[in-house]
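Handout, section B. The chain below has 318 residues.
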Amino acid sequence: MKALRLEQIGELALVEVSVPEAGRDETVLKVTHCAVCRTDAKMWRMGHRDLVLPRILGHEICGVSENEGHRVVVWPGRSCGRCEPCRTGAENLCREMRIIGFHEDGGFAEYVRVPESSLLEIPGDLPGSVAVLAEPLACAVNALQQADVAPGENVLIYGAGPVGLLMAIAVRAGGARPFLKEIRPEKLQQTEPVRRKIGARPYEPRIYDVVVNAAPSMETFTDGVARLGFGGRFCLFSGLTDNRSVPAALLNEIHYRQLRVSGAYGCTRAQMESALGILADFRNEAECLIEARVPLTAVPMVLPAVADGLVLKTIVEF
């Protein structure tokens, strides 16, 4: 089969490799779609703590089960099922987690081997190009659940990239009101039609119930805390890349106004189920996020723009 493999940092190769064989409690999927994530682009450019080379990247996967013939999406984790997080429904925090496209070969290939427990059937006639967005949308759902977002609340999202826009769809699906703040004028202009379509309002200088950062700058944290009302919640969704300390005055703001700060990492299988339901309900809005559909051979050409945050979702179609 054909596969796009990261041989070393910065070096991708289109290779011919054997179709993987399913082990116990596994299945082999014929990949139909694999979305290009900004994390894929970052791994290509600079690596990742969980990346083992050489590696076939791609963790936002849609395919057809060789066993059942059903259309499915893949929860990309392989958890132990025994530790406390797994037993309490937080398998995304499993201590022995192995992630498809990071620790194991992923979906930038014609076939991929996955645990049977990771398969979720695609509802109805939802296109694979939309269903493949279930994993990043589920990560957004996780963030909103960690922040206990309730219907009618105002939610400020920093970053108008694909994840920020998916976050806005998830906010709307939960009956709250999404607002987007983006510091790059060109990105605001690029995403304006999409933001209007999904019902995400532009940032307003007001008090918010919840703030979520879908951008990695420390400024999203310092500025976001200032936008919260008493008892407000901040969800640290994107890891911060600035090597700066948190000012004591900011911590005191959290203290005096009884603010809550939570983290959100990855997603659970149940959250992917929820995401598929949201995509079925907001299919037209989600389709607006797809900027390009490309063959596998085109991935090396789009990765620089994805890494720089200059494009919306690119979907590899097989």
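Note. Residues 2-133+289-317 form a domain with the Quinone Oxidoreductase; Chain A, domain 1 fold (CATH 3.90.180.10). Compare this with the example in section A.
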